[in-house]
Amino acid sequence: MVMSYKFKARLSSEWVLEKAAGGEVPLSEVLRLLAAVDATGHIAGACKACGMSYRHAWGILRKAEQEFETSLIETSRRQGTKLTNFGQHLIWAKRRLDARLTPTLESMASELQEELERLYPQSQQRLRLHASHGFAVEGLLQLANGMDMSPLELRYRTAIEALASLDRGECDLAGFQVPVGEYARPLLEHYAEWLDPDKHILIHLAVRNTGLFVKPGNPKRIASIADLVKPDVRFVNRQIGSSTRYLVEFMLKRLNIDTAQVQGYDNSEFTHMAIAAHIGSGMADVGMGVETAAWRCGLSFIPLVQERYFFAAHRDSMEAPQMRRLLDLMNGPAYQSYVSQLVGYDAACLGQVQTLSEAFGDELADMLLNSRKGYMIQS
What we know:
ten-stranded mixed sheet; D-Maltodextrin-Binding Protein, domain 2
């Protein structure tokens, strides 16, 4: 029987205003309340969602309005309660910050958890997962660490960083995505140095819809990647080294579009949710990411490609007890249901173990093998 860990390390951020005259104004409660008002459309519903009394909620709002010297909400009999423009900008700023900081804080918490667990001689060895931030990965971490199994130690990395870590023996599982269709080969070529058909095996996670995020109603009439060159269109990209950024580059290259023609190409965010929050707050008109993020932020979505997401692992690690428990979890009803309910995700092959030839076909698997041999000769 696997012993459950004694505690879970968690890190969180707090937004605080420092007043010129001295003192601080914490904003956590008012931001949570504003988000609830935005979601429910009235104060009563927001109070219930936040677990606070009507009087306490109004006290929080009035104090914040006094500090900001502006109104945060508007109430009318016909339309209920809605946020003012200032209030909307506050919660979008909070969403952007959360989207940017959450992966970093989760990785740091995982590192801290690992260090604390090592202090206990009876602690169990943890599976080390390196992967880019995604909704299926996020759900797996929460589910695995909430059960009596050896918890996952997670580091958020780009696909190439994750695969390089796996190749060096620094992690047990490396997450990466591959587009379905014509863009599979060029992206696999980027992975070839670290993905070995003779040494690695794949665990299929999900197929997900990837495309363009635009403002509700698509006011700039963006229909495809070609529209990124419109002079009135501002783009926000993923960070250098991310697979999504490579995919955008491939798509532009196929249309003979120079990246310098795209306004905002060098502006970047680190997660799909950060891209969505960037657009939702009005800082850009369009970005690329997974449909789930667009849906959660109330944006319109233009599908462009489907991506298959995998975990790569060493073949000789698959019979380890920790790996078998993780596979059982992935194939269990709780996680299958979670991924199936994610907007834009297909969980039909979730948990299947595949060789690289089974996943990509013999031709691409041979390409990976030959490319890797070439890298080894050069080094």
